[in-house]
Amino acid sequence: MSKILIISGSPRQSSVSIRIANFLTKELEKDPLLEIERIDLRQDFLPPIQKVWSAKDQASDAGKILFSKLERADGILLVSPEYNGSYSSSMKNLLDHFPRPLYENKVFGIATGSTGAMGGMRAAQQLISLVVALFGILSPRLLVTPHMDKKFNAESELIDESFSKNTAVFLKEFLWLLRKIDSGKE
């Protein structure tokens, strides 16, 4: 069974990008061969980083829970809004708390969104660089979501049917890569 961790990168209580994370979670939960966990930065908040927790026992109590989730994950979906041309600082803060070996050789998918026409493309480009720096294995298909407030309603349902192919192909490509990598592990 493959374990996927979905990290929702917006710390805002009124987050719109959480709709993308919720939708992806619901879609992935339909597959009985997947185990889905979540980190929601609206609740799973860490203070600004002072040092990397290189081992679980060095982490705070909250950090130990997050450490375990990262440790168990075979694949990680990063979902972030675009803030001023970048992904959320809360996402960066979270990922920086933990050592690089937690991320190495894990499959990453990137989903971004904005209420504008670019869909978080600049955030996605920076997340690509981050995944490479973490020695993750990036699924080349991105989910870039322009006008995300018009694609997903407040209940995280896809309301723009023309976007359904984008989400389906994104998940298909991510899962294909995840399963190929998982099947090659010893």
CATH superfamily: Flavodoxin domain
Architecture (CATH level 2) name: 3-Layer(aba) Sandwich
Please tell me what the overall shape is: globular
- Domain count, please report it: 1
Helix-strand pattern: EHEHEHEHEEHH
If you average the pLDDT, what whole number results? 95
Largest sheet: 6 strands, parallel
CA(first)-CA(last) distance? 14 Å
Radius of gyration, in angstroms, nearest whole number = 15 Å
Structural class: alpha/beta
GO molecular function, one term: FMN binding
InterPro entries: Flavoprotein-like_sf, FMN_Rdtase-like_dom, NAD(P)H-dep_reductase
Protein name: NADPH-dependent FMN reductase-like domain-containing protein
Pfam families: FMN_red
Describe the structure.
With 186 residues, this protein is of the alpha/beta class. The chain contains six helices and six strands. Strands 1, 2, 3, 4, 5 and 6 form a six-stranded parallel β-sheet that branches. β1, α1 and β2 form a beta-alpha-beta unit. The longest helix is centred in the C-terminal third of the chain and has 20 residues. The radius of gyration is 15 Å and the shape is globular. The chain starts with a strand and ends with a helix. One of its GO terms (cellular component) is cytosol.
Provide a short characterization of the protein structure:
By secondary structure, the chain is an alpha/beta fold. 37% of the residues lie in helices and 18% in strands.
Helix and strand topology:
Layout: E1 2-8, H1 18-28, E2 34-40, H2 61-72, E3 75-81, H3 89-96, E4 107-113, H4 121-133, E5 137-138, E6 143-145, H5 148-151, H6 164-183
Parallel strand pairs: 1-2, 1-3, 3-4, 4-5, 4-6
